[in-house]
Specification:
By secondary structure, the chain is α/β, with parallel strands linked by helices. Helices cover 38% and strands 15% of the residues. It is built from 31 helices and 29 strands. Strands 11-10-7-8-9-22-21 form a seven-stranded mixed beta sheet, with helices on both faces. Helix 8 runs antiparallel to helix 11, helix 17 packs antiparallel against helix 18 and helix 25 crosses helix 26. Bound molecules: the ligand CC(C)(COP(=O)(O)O)[C@@H](O)C(=O)NCCC(=O)O and manganese (II) ion. The site of manganese (II) ion has 8 residues, from loops.
Length: 910
């Protein structure tokens, strides 16, 4: 069994259902090839060790499969030791102008094979029984596009990434697939280019129906991606929260060359109920004839500089400049598209192509919006989602459609758009591989992250997202060599004003800032983390928003952009030093700085590029970006130094604390946590302080300054719950989750002494720490060693740590300590599933979710976890939020206070 658990770190875990499990077992026993069926499709075990499957389904090698965990479980997990990591897949949507690719790559497992995880699993009774019957592998979904006219670039890309063979880990001979590999594809090009794919890559394209794919893609996006749908009115993008349980029915309007209106009633349940032949093809066709434009994008770009009033007949033209207010029409409303051209003695050449393009665009968008609304009305559909190549993120198009829907519905209905709309078909094709299990993925299992590579390059790059580190660096260098600034693609400025009553003013001149199609389809990389769960103690998971600071306020965004930009040189120095200051590290440091700056610039231009942007996302992006350039722990040596210094004074602190009465002790402990939270390498002000004294001097100074009342001071209420009052005795909490923050004094002199007090009172303590490093935050990997060191000076900690299985080595040495172990409540460490200074409780590790089930007290510590995020979060159990505010602006904004003010916010279970 132990061997199995260890293997789990290296091998993928695959859940199968009962029936299959027996078959796998029997296959494994007699090791003979035979066919086995599953509810999900056929897989054929070949003679020998490999498995062949029919059609295009993923290949699983189930040879030497072992059941992991309890065989009595309904859906036990099995290990597939011979299954390689190459369950990568690719699907294509080959349209007339663009080829869209969706492909999957496995996560590199950054988590180490540590004993802590094994113990936590045992203690918390964590099994893999909740995994579904088919695997969703941890990995990333990438979205890439190419111009169809440059299909060879697309083939080169697939070839370079070996996507047609199953990913870089399983290259195929001479770059041509040696077996009959079949790739799912949709769109007309799946027919047109089938031979080319066969010739160049040796693969066959399995054609999937376009509409099936479209609907499957839309359903997946709407159910599984948090900020997928948005409204777009008068230039304002607003994300709409879709309840996946209340999605159907809806109207999907796909605007391609023509327009299809599809009533979607469920997964795979849809009907094309209407449509119009006046669509994208009409705009492009008529536009080409009338303006001589060479491409759709060029035509669209022209419209940016257009004034349709020279072409369209407006209500004001008919009514002598007045509104026709009796029927609700403003003077600026278009009475007749192109109507003005009949009354004038002008020829085509007398009109500006820009104006023609805008008139056409407005005519067609408006018409589609209107018919869509009427169709929705006919079928009593509340929601209308628009997608298709015609939209391609173009703000003016979306505004016009939205306007039409709003106008004709009297404000009752709203048009919605999808961020990944350009990839719906490709995603749907991808989902038609039956074993991915993507269809029942849930929002909390997907994390959208900023893509590295192409997106920074100004919108005209059709190249691949960058894969390995060398590619990333050489890509950066390419730009440096050329002296090209890495710029974020500039979004369109969609600020066309309306006149209110049914007509648009002329759009602002924005020809130079139009974001062309190539970048409009940029979306993040979707990280699939099947083990993530919603934190079970959230009182209102549906309305929970982790971010306290809303970055949709431009001045707020500008402030944090400046802060993070200013921190950058120092961070790069730390990161490079943490890797020994080698030339390679310097090169990576430089590349990281450029990539991060480019991301920041991109978000400044278009904050909602990857969904709703909060401060926590920015702080996480910085950490993700460091990891992309292989800086896994930039503050490694600082953390070590601070841990050692703090552990040296811990025994004295504990003696001091133990000499106090219960009440003074509790207050001193809370003060201690707040004071020690000053050791924060993410705060500019604090870092400046560290030059002025030693760790211990600063800690003393901080403690001496602790003066109540704190800026938010609920200590008395917390004390009453902990110690009771004269009239009311209170039982200890059963289990407390302590979300710890920084290394050094923060954990050693702040949170551990508090944990010790809780343990002393009979409360189990679970220290919740980061899975991956972020700034100087302590990680779950590091904590057992720190606890072990502290335990050398303290019996309470030692016994609890032993009871919690934390002192594994110590337990092995003292065999009879197991009896003693039972005399204490346990102290445990769990990872939180994040690698950021903040925490989004919608997506936490399964360990934490399991630990939370017994918990009745939560203590969130630090600015990232208790202020930037979760300050307003409500919990089902008692919650204490402790932090020192180490930023003047934040102090003013959140608590009307000053830098170094403290927050002690206690909220009893609701
Ligand atoms: C990154 C942090 C949230 C970390 O704070 P912590 O959670 O460690 O208390 C915080 O240091 C921060 O918000 N820093 C940026 C602001 C500044 O430099 O003032
Ligand atoms: Mn921190």
């Amino acid at each position: 069994m132990a061997g199995l658990v260890e293997k789990e770190q290296r091998q993928q875990l695959i859940g199968i259902n009962e029936k299959e499990e027996k078959q796998v077992e029997s296959e494994d026993n007699n090791n003979k090839g035979c066919e086995f069926e599953s509810g999900q499709g056929d897989m054929v075990l070949g003679a020998g060790n490999s498995i062949h499957r029919s059609g295009s389904r993923p290949q699983l090698d189930v040879s030497k499969a072992e059941i992991q965990g309890n065989v009595e479980e309904k859906y036990p997990t099995i290990l597939l030791p011979n299954q390689s990591d190459d369950l990568s897949h690719l699907a294509l949507d080959i349209g007339g102008s663009l080829i869209k690719l969706v492909y999957f790559s496995r996560h590199e497992d950054q988590s180490a094979d540590d004993k802590r995880k094994k113990i936590v699993k045992e203690r918390l009774g964590l099994s893999n029984g909740n995994r579904r019957s088919y695997p969703i592998l941890g990995g990333r979904l990438h979205f890439v596009k190419f111009e169809t006219g440059k299909i060879n670039e697309c083939l080169d890309f697939i070839h370079s990434k070996q996507l047609h063979c199953g990913g870089p880990e399983s290259p195929c001979a001479d770059g041509v697939a040696d077996r009959n590999v079949i790739i799912k594809a949709t769109g007309g090009g799946a027919y047109k280019y089938a031979d080319l794919f066969k010739e160049r890559l040796g693969v066959s394209l399995d054609k999937e129906d376009e509409m099936d794919c479209l609907v499957a893609g839309a359903n997946f996006l709407l159910k599984a991606i948090r900020h997928e749908a948005f409204t777009h009115m008068e230039g304002q993008k607003e994300f709409v929260q879709i309840d996946p349980n209340d999605l159907f029915p809806y109207l999907l309007v796909n605007i391609g060359s023509g327009v299809s209106m599809i009533k979607v009633d469920g997964d795979g349940k849809f009907e094309r109920v209407s449509g119009t032949n006046v669509g994208g093809g009409t705009y492009w066709g008529l536009g080409r004839l009338l303006t001589k434009c060479k491409s759709f994008d060029e035509l669209l770009e022209l419209s940016q500089k257009g004034d349709n009033r020279t072409i369209d007949m407006l209500v004001g033209d008919i009514y002598g400049g007045l509104d026709y207010s009796k029927i609700g029409l403003s003077a600026a409303t278009i009475a007749s598209s192109f109507g003005k051209t009949i009354s004038e003695k002008k020829e085509l050449e007398d009109y500006r192509p820009e104006d023609i393009s805008l008139s056409l665009l407005r005519m067609i968008s408006y018409n589609i919006g209107q018919i869509s609304y009427l169709t929705a009305l006919r079928f009593r559909l509340k929601r209308i989602f628009f997608g298709g190549f015609f939209i391609r993120g173009h703000a003016y198009t979306m505004d016009t459609i939205s306007f039409a829907v709003q106008f004709w519905s009297n404000g009752e209905a709203q048009a919605m758009f999808l961020r990944h709309e350009g990839f719906m078909g490709a995603l749907g094709a991808f989902m038609s591989y039956e074993k991915h299990g993507l269809d029942d993925l849930m929002v909390h299992q997907l994390v959208e992250r900023f893509p590295m590579g192409a997106p920074y390059t100004g919108g005209k790059i059709h190249g691949p997202p960058l894969g390995d580190l060398n590619e990333k660096i050489s890509w950066m260098e390419k730009f440096v060599r050329r002296g090209t600034e890495i710029t974020a693609p500039v979004p369109m400025t969609p600020l066309a004003a309306t006149t209110g009553l049914g007509g648009f003013e002329v759009p602002l001149s924005k020809g130079s800032t139009l974001r062309s199609d190539a970048s409009a389809l940029n979306v993040g990389v979707l990280h699939l983390v099947p083990t993530l769960e919603v934190f079970p103690l959230l009182a209102n998971p549906k309305s929970y928003d982790p971010n306290t600071i809303d970055l949709s306020d431009p001045s707020e965004l500008k402030y944090w952009y400046t802060i993070l930009s200013e921190h950058l040189p120092d961070l790069v120095d730390k990161a490079v030093a943490s890797e020994g200051g080698t030339d390679d590290a310097k090169r990576r440091g430089d590349a990281f700085a450029r990539a991060f700056s480019a991301h920041l610039a991109r978000l400044m231009e278009e904050p909602a590029a990857y969904g709703k942007l909060g401060l926590a996302n920015l702080l996480e992006m910085r950490e993700e970006c460091l990891r992309e350039f292989q800086f896994f722990d930039a503050y490694r040596s600082i953390k070590q130094r601070e841990n050692e210094a703090s552990l040296a004074v811990l025994p004295d602190l504990l003696v001091e604390i133990d000499s106090m009465d219960e009440e003074t002790r509790l207050l001193t402990l809370i003060e201690g946590v707040l004071a020690a939270n000053i050791f924060d390498w993410g705060s500019r002000a604090c870092v400046d302080l560290y030059h002025k004294g030693t760790i211990i001097e600063i800690y003393r100074m901080s403690r001496n300054k602790m003066q109540r009342p704190w800026r938010v001071d609920d200590f008395d209420a917390f004390k009453a719950r902990m110690l009771g009052t004269k009239n009311k005795k209170m039982p200890p909490h059963r289990r407390a989750l302590l979300f710890v923050d920084n290394s050094g004094a923060d954990i050693v002199l702040g949170m551990l002494p508090l944990a010790r007090e809780l343990l002393r009172r009979g409360t189990e303590v679970v220290l919740v720490a980061n899975s991956l490093s972020a700034l100087n935050d302590v990680t779950a990997m590091e904590l057992p060693d720190i606890v072990a060191e502290a335990a050398k000076h303290c019996d309470i900690l030692r016994r609890a740590a032993e009871a919690g299985g934390l002192l594994v080595d110590a337990m092995i040495n003292t065999s009879d300590s197991s009896k003693e172990k039972s005399s204490s409540v346990p102290l445990m460490v769990v990872e939180n599933g994040c690698g950021s200074p903040c925490i989004d409780l919608r997506q936490v590790s399964s360990e934490l979710a399991a630990a939370a089930k017994e918990a009745d007290l939560i203590i969130l510590e630090g600015m990232g976890r208790a202020l930037h995020t979760n300050l307003n979060a409500q919990f089902k159990c008692d919650a204490l939020k402790l932090a020192m505010v180490k930023n003047q602006r934040l102090a003013e904004k959140l608590v009307n206070g000053n830098i170094y003010d403290c927050i002690c916010k206690y909220e009893p279970a609701g």
